[in-house]
Specification:
With about 180 residues, this protein is mainly alpha-helical. It has five helices and no strands. Helix 1 packs antiparallel against helix 2 and helix 1 crosses helix 4. The chain is elongated, with a radius of gyration of 19 Å. The relative contact order is 0.16.
Length: about 180
């Protein structure tokens, strides 16, 4: 149930952000979940949309056939690996003194753990087996996903909001300054 709630949250978050990017160019908040900026734009968007669809489908209908089960496991595993690579980048920046976070743990680490839980849940589901469904379980998955949607902005604030990114510079630009006569 927990893995389905994480899959619903992750798939919904990815899909909403890709749609946001289509509506408003340059809108890319998927980077706070997984940073795929290293790849070609169209390929990364295809990966994000297909992963979102697979995660959402598994969260809603966790009785996949062999092909969908394998594709969902591969997608969750790929995103988990990307989140672990993002974690390694964080520790590289930390070791070089480029950032000063309040916590020595990046947000990408719990994201990777969540995606590994999804991967575990998908792999534990037997291909073609229909698990017992109940309205109560479905509501619990929906509620768990809602809790994640509510907590995620707080996690972003905690992990990103108070991190110090200051570096020495030769110049600074201050926007919005205006001098008044009085």
């Amino acid at each position: 149930m927990v893995s389905r709630a994480i899959a619903l949250f992750s798939g919904g978050f990815l899909l909403l952000n890709v749609l946001g990017e289509l509506l408003r160019g340059g809108f890319d908040e998927t980077v706070v979940l997984v940073d795929l900026r290293c790849g070609p734009f169209l390929l990364t968007r295809l990966v994000l949309v297909s992963t979102a669809a697979l995660l959402l489908a598994w969260a809603v209908r966790p009785e996949p056939g062999r092909v969908r089960r394998a594709a969902t496991a591969a997608a969750a595993g790929l995103l988990a690996l990307v989140a672990l690579a993002n974690t390694a980048d964080f520790y590289g920046h930390l070791a070089r003194g480029l950032i000063e976070p309040p916590l020595p743990v990046p947000l990408s680490l719990p994201v990777a753990v969540g995606l590994v839980l999804v991967l575990r849940g998908v792999l534990r589901s037997a291909p073609g087996e229909v698990p017992p469904r109940s309205r109560r379980r479905d509501l619990a998955v929906l509620a768990g996903s809602g809790v994640l949607f509510a907590l995620f902005p707080l996690l972003q604030i905690t992990f990103f909001g108070s991190t110090d990114y200051r570096r020495p510079a030769d110049a600074v630009v201050v926007f919005g300054a205006k001098a008044y006569a009085d």
